[in-house]
Amino acid sequence: MIVHDSGPVTLIGGANVAYADLTAAQAIAPWVVAADGGADTALAQGVMPEAVIGDFDSISADARTRIPAERLHPIAEQDSSDFDKCLRNIEAPLIVGLGFSGARLDHQLAACNTLVCHPHHRCLLVGSDDVVFLCPPSLKLDLPKDCPVSLFPMGAVEGVSDGLTWPIAGLNFAPDGQIGTSNRAKGAVHLSLTAPKMLVMVPRVHLTLVADALLAAPARW
Fold it and tell me: Domains in the chain, start-ordered, CATH in brackets?
């Protein structure tokens, strides 16, 4: 592992990152790692990353000069995304990802694919409007009544729920079949899933609540 930390880690990608989102992420995960060009984003926000991981096709020459050489960890292969390279080389109880959503839909889809490819990680991605994460085997979210909750399967998966307006028990979810977007919480939500295939999306305002819930989840995949 390039990064091994006992506390949560903030991971910055190459898309735009709002200062407020970075501040909120660092309140949860002070240790900052950058994925390739995310190093420039971190420096522009006044943050020196503890490590930079990626194929280094987008980090600027200026960032390479300003960041100590021992913190630069290039991985030359082109068969995976920088986000994937980071998850393969970070060990932490929680990863809070910023800058992995934005104008390019292909990058967002690739990031969702990476979440499912590394199910042992507790990782959430912060967007401008919502947060997305792979649901662990069981999860409790203390959401307010009428909070939007979307479930999107990245593969075949079943589960049970408590606290959703439309329960999921008995449904066979699949990306080309039954999906679960635009559900709503009646209050605290409990989810139990049969496989590491279900993405959960809730409003960005609940970032800290989601981070706490993932850290408290009793088991990983």
Answer: 3-128 (3.40.50.10240), 138-203 (2.60.120.320)
Query: Whose CA is closest to 147, among 188, 180, 178?
Result: 188
Greatest CA separation for the chain: 56
- Concatenated DSSP letters for 54-67? E--SSS-HHHHHHS
Cβ count within 10 A of residue 98: 27
| pLDDT tens by residue, 2-32 | 999 899 999 999 899 999 999 999 999 999 9
Best CA proximity match to 106, nearest among 74, 83, 140, 131: 83
Q: What is the pTM of this model?
A: 0.96
Place of tokens 């990626």: 54
Instruction: Count CB-CB contacts under 10 A for residue 120.
Output: 12
